[in-house]
């Protein structure tokens, strides 16, 4: 009797375990949902009914699919749209432009600092030269004035006349607007450019020019101070020659420091505007 009871208990426990397994529980849920929709569960009915309605098995399969889909969690990220792409691209472009702007500002600051240091340390210095009247002049006499210094020679066939004519235009315009600038012409041909010849040459452009020349040693000292290159070319049969030299006009402030320079391609209007700007900054800084 006890053996029968034990066997019955074992069979009953196995039956309960099967009935409570996940597969059975899920199947029962499908059956319950099928019952709620009007379907009847029948183990013997696996074919469509006479009126064309799906069988109970098909109802169970459809219900299982619905439950399976219902258990799938929704996507967290959402679909990628054109709007999101445009917003992301625009943000990236703005950030890139901002960083490029900061980089350019930093580079401009470095260049300004280099120019300021270069101008103070490398260009400019004392000199002693002779003016068109034969008087010895030194650089200290011009302190307190804005200067435009150009190095050239009186036998220059084309470049020097063009540059001196441009400088005369700039100085006349500045003078008209009450901006005072002294234009200095320093010869790089001491062998031929006597004080008298320099004076006669400059009178063809403007009476405001201060012409300076001197001995070879005096001229070399002035050119070295302003980092001006010049080289005397070979002489021809008539003892004539050309002097190759730097074509730059230097703007010197009243303290004797270089603040800017103008090359051959700089136009008179640009030079005028730049000089006025430097003067305004100098005045504002005291």
UniProtKB/TrEMBL annotation:
Cu cation binds at residues 156, 160, 245. Coiled coil: none annotated. It is found in: Mitochondrion inner membrane. Its main location: mitochondrion. Copper metallochaperone essential for the synthesis and maturation of cytochrome c oxidase subunit II (MT-CO2/COX2) by facilitating the incorporation of copper into the Cu(A) site of MT-CO2/COX2. Residues 31-54 have a biased composition (Polar residues). Homodimer. The keyword Transport does not apply. Residues 30-75 are annotated as: Disordered. Keywords: Chaperone, Copper, Disulfide bond, Membrane, Metal-binding, Mitochondrion, Mitochondrion inner membrane, Transmembrane, Transmembrane helix. It comes from the Eukaryota. PROSITE patterns: THIOREDOXIN_2 (PS51352). One of its GO terms (molecular function) is copper ion binding. Residues 118-280 form the Thioredoxin domain. This is Protein SCO1, mitochondrial. Belongs to the SCO1/2 family. Pfam families: SCO1-SenC. The chain crosses the membrane at residues 80-102. One of its GO terms (biological process) is mitochondrial respiratory chain complex IV assembly. It comes from Aceria tosichella (wheat curl mite). Disulfide bonds join 156-160. The lineage of its organism: Eukaryota, Metazoa, Ecdysozoa, Arthropoda, Chelicerata.
